[in-house]
Amino acid sequence: MSYSEPGGSRDVSALFSRGRLTAVPRKAARRRQLLDHPARTLFGLGREYSEREVNDAVRTVHDDCSALRRYPVEARLLTRARDGSAYRRAA
Question: Which CATH class is domain 13-89?
Answer without folding.
Answer: mainly alpha
